[in-house]
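Onboarding guide, step 5: your first structure request.
Type a short instruction followed by the sequence, for example:

Predict the 3D structure of this protein.
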Amino acid sequence: MNTAPQPLPSAPRGEPFDIGLGVVSILLIGSILPAMIGGQPVGQPSQSDVASIQESGDAARQAVMLALYGMHLALLAWTVRPRAFLLIGFPLIGFMAWCALSAFWSPLPEPTLRRVFAMVGTLAAGLCLGLRLGPKGLVDAMRISAGIALVGSILHAAVNPLLGFDHNGYLRGLFSHKNLFGSFMAMSILAVIHHMASGDGGRWNRLADKALLVGCAVGLGAAHSATPLLALLAGIGLFCSAALAASGRGLISVAAPAVLGCGAAIILAFGGEIMPLVAAALGRDPSFSGRGTVWAFVLGAVAQRPWAGFGYGIFWLGEAAPGAVFWYWSRQYELHAHNGYLQLLLDAGIIGSALFLASLAVLLNRLLALVHARHGTDGLVGWAAMVLGFFLACNLSESRILQGNDLLTLLFVWSIVRVNLECWRVRVAGLVARQIAWQNQAASWPRPAPTLMPQER
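The system replies with structure tokens like these:
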């Protein structure tokens, strides 16, 4: 009998319904709604704009997102057992509990709870897609979503230039901000690269990939957004490292692409003398577009409430929010900290940040375990590495760590769920293999001859 461990079946590509669910979720959580419900701002942000922010939120968008998250929760309740929610991981569950508790010390408790509900809905969507779509299915959904977003954004800008382009003339398409459009295009580039590297599909599929790759690259350039470009370097670097690790290369070869990609992103974002050159090439302000002033103010605010934070998601929410004093002081009308790690400290303090770092550490540890096991994970390690590199680098200058209604949060949660599920599959395969080996070994043991009773002799 063969005692070698038999690999469990690889994750399916996904049924048409599952891929369709993924496309709808990616587009809506990726924030194409502003073009449909009139949420695209016109002109440069001003004091009147930030003062008019409604603490109650946008009712139309809330209704759409509530329907989407309700569908995900209904699918979860119908198809899986309650303990499947543990695939999100205890650190993220603890993070959500801590954010919900922050309503007790938040100056705006009702908006805090509303933001917590949005985050819970995003977690549910990530769990649902993680259970229903493997890496190939999710990449297919991303490619379809990219085509829809790209064509829709071009048409929207052609029909409504005042809405399709921001006040500086940069393309934002269906999205509320050019950085969101640029980030969506950059993530789509990663999905196309992953699909092309897998060698999946025939001639027409490869042609479609090349056309989509060129289109997304042009869209990213038209958005004139630097952060997604830097995050793209980090994502590609980690993807190359994951591919080299899967092929059994040495430590130096494996680490080199990740170090180069992530290092380039950090240097281009913060690197002294090189930054003016990059800023000039992109037509940007070499002083981080005024972000240094924001970071200085945020650091002072963090020092006031270092452990608990100000309450999840409300620091910049209107004139009654703690961050409103920054607008009156600087006349610089920002709506987030321009750094995900600082924003997380504002929202959830050191305790919440520690829970996020714990979830990140668990994810990295299990990704390394899958690489070490050399288990056929259907491209999971490469795609999760891409997502993780992009997620961490993007938050160097954007505030998108564990935010509700955010595509990066959705993909981060999907990665955690899928990696946890794959690790469970590997453990089950190992237990089955050891049980078979033990049974075979027991069957080969010599058996004592039977002893005859006196009456039988």
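Each response can be followed by summary notes, for example: The radius of gyration is 25 Å.
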